[in-house]
User: Fold these one by one.
Assistant:
Number 1:
Amino acid sequence: MSITEQGDGEPIVLCHGFPGLGFSWRHQMSALAEAGYRVIAPDMRGYGGTDAPSDSRLYDRTHTVADLVGLLDTLGLDRAVFGGHDFGAHLTWDLPTLAPDRVRALIQFSVPRLPRSPIRPSAGFAHMAAKHFIHFHYFQTPGVADAELDANPDEFLAKIFHALGGAGDYLSCWQHPSEGNGYLDVLPAAPPLPWSWLSAEEFDRYVDEFARTGFTGGLNWYRAEDLVWEQTVDTHDLPITVPTAFIAGAQDPVLTMMGRAALATMADLVPGLRSTLVVPGAGHFVQMEAPATVNDAITGFLRDLESPTP
């Protein structure tokens, strides 16, 4: 596992999603280190400098939870505050029930905690794909999306970052049928870089890494969804009682797809929820799009953790 570290103090492990890297937390690293924390940002399994098994079964909860527990063990840490974005949040929502002694608190981004689905994820994806293009379904078949995205990393990354950002229009993908379309066919065009929240140099960092590694490791997180669903049958809906903060962009398509009611539902599933921040104008990559606001929210939450309970 490749990690980036900065600072000293209480450890905070930040887990990125698709298509990300530990570099996705660059704005949080220095701010939290300056605030007195030890910040650890791994390239998650399948990404960047971390091992990327080709077998999607090795991206299930058994392995991904073991990655984070093993990281703490290797660094000699009893527990940490965990933050997760996108698939990183999907994973870290499960940590308090699967590795309860290792989690001090949670800071979750973009993906609310939802009740367990009554149907197998791949069946739900297929049902939606019969009506319109949906990437969850397109990503299920090994080799198909891999070939398309690996051949065009710069085009894909520009399109997906923009479409999911606050100025994008990701849900326009749903206007297209599944039949005969790849992801690049349905994603809207992206404007030239730089953008207000992503420089050309930062973008090139992602392109260079994914051009080197390909996207199969990231896609395997989607292909392991059925296994994760099976493995968490007894734990998914257990209450999350550790102190938790949730942060999302107001323009995040995830919130649009799930509905704002998902935030109220999350409050029922997460009794430990202490704060919810929805950032105006920001999209899915809220930690990169609105770093000052996000960093203030994180440090405020962490300071409250250190305060004695009245």
Number 2:
Amino acid sequence: METTRRSLLPEGDRLPATAGPRGGAAARLALATAAALFASGLFHLGVFAVAGGPWDGPVSWRKPATFGLSFGLTLAALTWVTSYVRTSARTRAALLGLLAADSVLEVAGITLQAWRKVPSHLDMETPFDSAVSMTLAFGGGLLVVILTWFAAAAFRRPPSGPAGMALAVRAGFAILLVALASGAAMIARGVVLTRTGHQLAAYDSTAPLKPLHAVSLHAVLVLPALAWLLARTRLSAPARARTVAAAAAGYALAVLAAAVWAAVSY
């Protein structure tokens, strides 16, 4: 049935063999992990609704809720999107496994500190808190390595998929790199301030970059999803490609606006 459906699609619109939830045990495990992380985020939204407390600030139920939701959504998106990236199945499986484990590490550390009612990042008050902060920083560095590798692979060879998908995947990864850079900048600036005895200033220093980080984080899902949805319309392939290009340009402008806001806020 699947082979017949593929053969009816135009050559440029045929889906990769590993598209969607397929792609072996690693992809299935990554999707299951993503679902668990998303469920954790929803659970902590419920905890916030019951327990109350501030939404902003370094100690808040917002952090396990939003990080669980965001990591769950991002891991699921990357599991799907990387099926269009031309790389070996073994390499993709290994990187997805690392990505899933790292996502659990990040969300678990943030959740642990939320229940302990202490900050999860930039907290050097005790040896244990320092260990958690450094572990989260290491996990963030590993994320940068994994996602940069996938981004490089996407630009090294054109991703497969329907009209506009190659541009959507490449633009999504390029914008995702902005999210990674802004996240690394927040951690680096905060660590410097913490090490120099400005703990409260370290927490406040991340605020201007948070909108940029949030806006740029999910382009890797939004743009490929648009290309996938357009492939199921009656639009011609050139029209679909132009629509994806316009969406990518619009998303890039939104990221630029967030970057300008961050620059003038410092």
